[in-house]
Amino acid sequence: MKDDLNIVGKRVVRSDSLAKVTGEARYTADLTFPGMLVAKVLRSPYPHAKIVGIDVSKALKVPGVKAAVSGFDSYGVKWGVFRYTQDHAMLHTDKVRYIGEDVAAVAAVDEETAMEALSRIKVDYEPLPAVFDPFESMKDGAPQIHEQYKNNINIHINIDVGEVDRAMEKAYLVREDTFKAAGEAYAMMEPYAVVASFKNGYLDLYMPNAGPHVRAKALSNMLKLPLNRVRIRHINSGGAFGGRSEVAPGDLVASLLAIKSGRPVKLVLSREENATSSRQVHDIIATIKTGMKKDGTILAKDYKVIYDGGAYSSTGPIATSIPFYVYEECYRFPNVRYNGYRVFTNKGIRGMYGCHGRAFLAGNEAQMDVMAKELGLDPVDVRLKNGLKSGEMTATKSKITSCGLKETIMTASEKTNFRKRWAKPSRLKGVGMGCVAIMCGFPMGFRSGSSCYVKINDDGQVTLVTGLVDNGQGNESMVIQVASEVLGVPMADINLVNADTEVTNLDPGAYSQAAAFVGANAVRVACENAREKIVAIAAEKLKVKVKDVGLKDGSAYSLKNPDKKMPISWVVREAFFRGEPITGTGSFFPNIDFEREWVTRPWGQMAGTFSFGTSIAEVNIDGETGKITMPRFTSAHDCGRAINPMAVEGQMEGSIQQAGVAAITEGNLWDGGYLLNPNLLEYKVPLACDMPDMDTIIVSSRDPAGPFGAKEGGLTVRMNAYSAVACAVANATGELFSELPLTPDRVMKMLERKKGVKG
Amino acid sequence: MILPQFEYRRARSVADAVALYKKEKGKALYLAGGTDLIPLVKLRLQAPKAVIDLKGIEDLRIIASRGGSLSVGANVTLFDLKKDPVIAAHFPVLIESLEATACETLQMRGTLGGNILQGTRCLEYNQSLEWRKARGFCLKTGGKECNVVRGAKTCFANYCSDNAPSLISLGAQLRFTGPGGERTVKLESLFTGDARTPFAMEGGEVLTHILIPLKKTKGAYEKLRVRESMDYPLVGAAVSVIDGKARVCVGGVGGAPRLYVIGDIRDAAAVRDVAEKASADAKPVANATVSPVYRKKMVGTLVKRAVRRALAEGKR
Ligand SMILES: Cc1cc2nc3c(=O)[nH]c(=O)nc-3n(C[C@@H](O)[C@@H](O)[C@H](O)COP(=O)(O)OP(=O)(O)OC[C@H]3O[C@@H](n4cnc5c(N)ncnc54)[C@H](O)[C@@H]3O)c2cc1C
Ligand code: SF4
Question: What does each C-alpha distance from A590 to A153, A319, A394, A517, A522 come to in angstroms?
């Protein structure tokens, strides 16, 4: 692989930075269109109730109200990611299933009028018994939330590899523990927002989203419009973290209102609505049984994991599986059984989360340390011993093609003097290590690949067209950087047209960590194809061999005699003359086993490649109050190659906050079906003053298939930082956690439990 | 969430403010920095017909020493107070509680008067109208019983001012001017003990000055919170020591701060007794983000810690 790169691998200023820091960048709420209306949604006050009738006629009489809709105005097409999970109509005529669910909506000339109109909508409900606890929900006789799912079990994932029971018998040490974690809030800076407009039979939608193409497909189904009539347009996104992957009730509401009123409609949810009625994160209860040999080798794992799925399927089978996969992609499990249950409750709709699965992952890692301690082993050695290596297969038959796990473990532990400090923790101070691997992309059928079209304009500037999505992490800048490298054109001279379903082609979207590995790869291929055409003409004009032509700073030059050069714009003009303008298309389709199915066939190649990472947390515990402080956090991430190291470090730091420090602060609090902290005061996102000193280490493993060797930029930290914290607390207290977040009251309980054992 | 409609009135003097209040027939609320009031109005927990802005009243922005007291105008911002050299030289407890209040941005807007007169808080109360309607109104919002302690006819909302406990420990008094004239009361007597209507005030009274005995004190403020900034106290404990005698005040739990006096701060048994009594007196319920059992325990812990630090002259 060529290493003499000009732009890729450099700490460049992101292409979007200036617009964002100056406030020039436009977000959905900033949009205004002539005649635009404001929408407001009437929400269910009941966790579970039959809808007897909805009467919007009085709302329509309020002056300034232009449209009102309910489930009776929609086709009732139920949405679900899979055919077998289609259970979410988004606006209902039969019943509501959670407090805050969308029931009806109005569009009016201003917000006050819309609010007034909402109060005139009459809904007759017949309250039904509700259930909020997944264990209660699975019992016979519990209120049935959907007819088709017995005992409210939405999804059951069963994976069984090897002979778990026999292996457990043979193990030297067996341990079983149960860990809980409260679901988190996505708490993106930008709440849910959408602008919809319907003209000449075409529906245009602007909203922050992680995948415009899947969104358009879902809406075309629900609205019974041909796919080409639903156009999701590009707009900046104020964070997603997995919470904008799926079509949302607001999409349907705004679309129906726009169609009915014939005017553009804007719907922006309040912070509270964003928490109660856009997506939430699953609460998880994970029971983990591990059998180990005396030397620390993991012989068997037996899992039972309950996911509180809220009221609808959403990404059901994926959410029920991912925590397991990111763990089996990290360690060797000769015998493993996984039973994951996603259970319906009368709570808000739930989705995937960048940090998804903390009870499971932190539980595994903390338990591993306790077992290592019992066996007199060092956690670093145990991780190295069980960690997968390049060329190995995971338990469910995914091949690892590049792997920097060992390097991440070694560099992170050496930099923190981990072994020594772990072995002899000083009073109430601890260190802990968490490891994980992440698939870069996963099976999404024909949507798993990405393609790009590039054209070089007559001024030598470049236009890239790709379906790739940026949710704030810097994907747009990343592909501009890749194109700049391949074409030898400065980043500032490259325009990007992306994530607009009318002009761009399919792309997996900004989830499943596919943007770098798949999206940027397609851009690379397209640019290489265009490059070939430039080089051919330049070679002819410069009178050198094709292989002796270099492209840099907007010029083509002779590698042997750099003074011999010409602007790329001349090459382009020549190409126009010849009637063959310089364009290129390129695509990338990852090596995935498409026979693989989440429920029925959970084995085969999961993704084109995997990233690896290790985090080390250092904690101090106040013995009197149980309060944890984190002086320092170290994360090492194998991202293949960092296309922009600054951007990767930014992702890693964000992950330390969102997964690591959040492990002591963040969690949704419930009183039955009422979310008690739907605001950013009582839902505690870590603040700047709560942040540790951070050391982010980039490990390069140069993936053979990734663009310039890249895989993904930082997600491992989102899925191992809480493990590091849980392990550090175990190291400091000698106790395993039982529930996240580790708020001071819970830590105090751990300390008391410890004392109790001693006394 | 947008604000509902209300009239905005600007008072030029205290007398003007009281007159405006009378004109609005009691359906008005005073506005200082608005950091407590405006969120309550947005949530439809307050629905004033008019808001009378006190910010323009010069007299309420003055810090002056008068007859053995430091008189602090109610409109002085927390930030200005924190930077005041006299406060720093005399009242370490107050410096610490000011520093611990919300965050610096809020301290620049929030006033001391508003801080003292802020509403009591509860996870089931500080919610939108839609949320509360769905939940069913509790005692504090006109319902029949408490939503946190089922069946209870008492409200357990928490008074979360960080600075009132400090001021009580310093023996501060409040001066009011209202439709019925002027009065001065000890800060600890401001509280009714009923968290629904926490303050014993006549309609239309303006808090004009906070009077703090101008003596050098030792002191410390301990605050329990999950994050190091922004968060309201889950428990707060203020201690001020003058001539070996300590005044301890606990806030953050229930509708009123509680004052305890320790005759001799060096008497370890007396300190322990007060810490235990304070913990026993505290009746936290499940209306904050950490468990009530824990908060109750922390009352004693923070009292002891505050005393320890007050003696060690502030060292943490
Ligand atoms: C995110 C957030 C975090 C916070 N954290 C904390 C915290 O950690 N600790 C803490 O102590 N507080 C906290 N607060 C509360 C904060 O509002 C107060 O600290 C602030 O000092 C209130 O002052 P203000 O001038 O803004 O009051 P305002 O909102 O203007 O007024 C508050 C109340 O007092 C009345 N009032 C004000 N001045 C007078 C007067 N002179 N006479 C009669 N009545 C008057 C008003 O009518 C109103 O009812 C927080 C607030 C927010 C929004
Ligand atoms: S403590 Fe009870 S009565 Fe008081 S505000 Fe909370 S729920 Fe309402």
Answer: 33, 21, 18, 8, 10
Partner-chain contact A690 B227, CB within 8 Å: yes
Top mutation candidate among B14, B52, B118 for ligand 1, by most atoms within 8 Å of CB: B118
Q: Are B229 and A665 spatial neighbours (Cβ–Cβ below 8 Å)?
A: no
Q: What is the ipTM of this complex?
A: 0.96
Place of tokens 């359906």: B27
Distance CA A492, CA A483 (A): 11
Does A151 reach chain B within 8 Å, measured CB to CB? no
User: Could you give the dihedral angle defined by the CA atoms of residues A217, A219, A221 and A222, in that order, rounded to the nearest 10 degrees?
Assistant: 160
Rounded to whole angstroms, how far apart are CA atoms A22 and A27?
A: 13
Question: For the residues A427-432, what does the mean pLDDT come to?
Answer: 96
CB atoms within 10 A of CB A439: 28
Chain B hits for A43, Cβ within 8 Å: 130, 134
Are residues A687 and B305, on separate chains, in Cβ contact within 8 Å?
Answer: no
Q: How many helices (H) and strands (E) does chain B have?
A: 11, 12
State the residue for tokens 């209660």: A136
Residues in chain B closer than 8 A to A664 (CB atoms):
226
> What digits encode the pLDDT tens for the residues A230-268?
999 999 999 999 999 999 999 999 999 999 999 999 999
Reported in sequence order, the residue ranges of A553-627 that DSSP labels E, i.e. its strands, are 555-558, 565-567, 583-588, 610-621
Burial of residue B58, with CB atoms counted within 10 A of its CB: 0-12 exposed, 13-18 middle, 19 or more buried: exposed
**In the structure encoding, which two tokens stand for residue A179, read together?**
């860990």
What is the Cα–Cα distance from A329 to A396, expressed in whole angstroms? 9
- pLDDT for B315 equals 56
pLDDT tens for A694-704 read 999 999 999 99
Judge whether residue B119 has pLDDT over 80: yes
Upstream peptide bond of A741 is cis (omega within 30 degrees of 0): yes
pLDDT at position A3 is 67
Nearest-ligand number for the alpha carbon of B232: 1
Interstrand relation of B235-242 and B218-224 (parallel, antiparallel or unpaired)? antiparallel
Amino acid type, A156? H
Query: A294 CA distance to ligand 1 centroid (A)?
Result: 61
Cβ of B106 less than 6 Å from ligand 1: yes
Q: How far is A153 from chain B (nearest CA, A)?
A: 27
Residue B278 is given by DSSP the state H
| CA end-to-end span of chain B | 41
d(CA A478, CA A492): 13
Q: How far apart are CA A523 and CA A510, in angstroms?
A: 15
Domains detected in chain A? 17-24+449-588 (3.30.365.10), 31-128+188-240+244-277 (3.90.1170.50), 280-443+596-753 (3.30.365.10)
Helices (H), B210-291: 268-281
Q: Mind listing the pLDDT tens digit for each residue in A447-457?
A: 999 999 999 99
Q: Where would I find the H helices in A636-714?
A: 645-655
Residue A181 CA to residue A184 CA, distance in Å, equals 9
- How many contacts does A have with B, using Cβ atoms within 8 A? 82
Q: Give the relative orientation of helices A379-386 and A358-374 as an angle to the nearest 10 degrees.
A: 110
d(CA A621, CA A735): 13
CA distance A668 to A745: 16
Q: Match 């066939």 to its residue by tokens.
A: A601
Gap between the Cα atoms of A89 and A75, Å rounded? 9
Torsion of CA A743, A745, A747, A748, to 10 degrees: 160
Of chain A residues 205-234, which have a CB less than 8 A from chain B?
A: none
In three-state form (DSSP H/G/I as H, E/B as E, the rest C), the secondary structure along A694-709 is EEEEEEECCCCCCHHH
**Calpha distance B69→B212 (Å, rounded):** 5
Name the phi and psi angles at A586, rounded to 5: -160, 150
B105 touches chain A (CB under 8 A): no
